[in-house]
Design a protein that fits this description.
The protein is mainly alpha-helical and 364 residues long. 79% of the residues lie in helices and 0% in strands. The two termini are 30 Å apart. The relative contact order is 0.16.
Length: 364
């Protein structure tokens, strides 16, 4: 379970870190006209973001991570609110009223929360039932078995505070998603029928339309979002290394090591960016879904009122082969996220049951 968390966190945060470098690189290209190969520009940008985050995480520890995360949260939420309001202002300047915006949204089906019953039931993640089931499983996986979130819960003074924090985060995340989805819809109205890559459209809008000093504020908001996740990951990976693997080394050295590993992991999506067929958000969720199923299975196993008799390395093998089977099935059939996670849970229990049968048969 620990190895699964480490691999998922490293790969997933590599994608997030790369996604954050996009607006910074576009900003540098647009304003400074630096004649440099785009790969090297991304490399130096990623190195800069990683270096600053590693610096305050290594020397500040968990307390610094909590405080900076809180401040960064307010920075990027206020940045989002400003962007939302400013896009409406620019649309009004073009002669497009709030009523016209609403009409365009409705005409282009941008007001749909779900795609209803459109698309393939097994492969479309936004099919109504898939969206509900997938959202539930992703929430249980991220808030129940992900060490980064669990560490935050354990930092609360009491169990009641931890429960309230988890419940409260649901409402905050809902409002946060509504805000940024609203920005996405407004950008659709702003650019009309122009074809722009989804991962770069907000960056393009910022550098071309936001005046100084608000431009710097929005860039700070984007950087705050990435650095918040990165610092928490460094901290949780370091704790996992010490607690699960008994690595008796300096906490600062371990944190620095994980920071550099996360930096190198961002090279993977950078090198593959030209061949990616899906957005970076979907890619990050897909990576998490591979390991999430078996780990949710393990989590639910711990909630049982009785303890099943498991021999030897049955749990470890069930998790490992459960993840392997999930990755194979996902690659072969391109299932929606909900079914990838559900398959991971079922495969974990099937393999665990098989292990118990084989061992009990062996022992007579």
């Amino acid at each position: 379970a620990s190895v699964s968390f480490i691999i998922t966190r490293v790969l997933g945060d590599g994608v997030r870190l790369f996604a954050t470098s996009i607006p910074v690189v576009i900003f540098i290209q647009y304003f400074f006209h630096i004649q440099m190969n785009e790969f090297w520009l991304y490399l130096f940008t990623l190195l800069g973001i990683a270096f600053v985050t590693i610096l305050y995480t290594v020397y500040g520890g968990f307390r610094a991570v909590v405080w900076t995360d809180s401040l960064q949260f307010f920075i990027y939420v206020f940045g989002g609110i400003f962007a939302f309001g400013y896009i409406i202002f620019l649309l009004n300047q073009k002669g497009i009223s709030e009523f016209d915006i609403l009409q365009i949204i409705l005409e282009n089906n941008k007001s749909q929360f779900f795609r209803g019953f459109q698309g393939n039931f097994l492969t479309s993640p936004y099919f109504f039932l898939n969206a509900i089931l997938g959202g539930m499983l992703l929430s249980v996986g991220s808030h129940g078995v992900d060490q980064m979130f669990v560490q935050r819960a354990l930092a609360c003074k009491t169990e009641t505070q931890a429960k309230l924090a988890l419940i409260g985060s649901g409402f905050v995340i809902f409002l946060q998603f509504a805000l940024f989805l609203g920005i996405g819809i407004l950008l659709f109205v702003f650019y009309g029928n122009k074809t722009i890559l989804p991962d770069k459209v907000f960056s393009k809008f910022i550098v071309e339309n936001i005046p100084s000093p608000f431009l710097g504020f929005l860039l700070a908001s984007i950087l705050a979002s990435a650095m918040s996740t990165l610092s928490s990951s460094i901290n949780s990976l370091s704790l996992t290394t010490v607690q699960d693997w008994n690595w008796n080394s300096s906490a600062k050295k371990i944190s620095f090591l994980w920071g550099m590993i996360l930096f190198f992991s961002s090279m993977i999506p950078l090198l593959l960016s030209s061949s990616l067929s899906e957005g970076l958000v979907e890619l990050g969720l897909r990576i998490a879904s591979y390991t999430m199923g078996p780990l949710i299975g393990l989590f639910l196993l711990g909630r049982l009122s009785f303890v099943p008799k498991i021999y030897g390395s049955g749990l470890g093998l069930s998790i490992f082969f459960g993840i392997s089977l999930t990755m194979f099935v996902s690659y072969k059939f391109e299932l929606a996220l909900a079914y990838i996670i559900a398959f991971g849970i079922l495969s974990f229990y099937a393999l665990l049951f098989l292990n118990m049968l084989l061992v009990s048969h062996k022992h007579g």
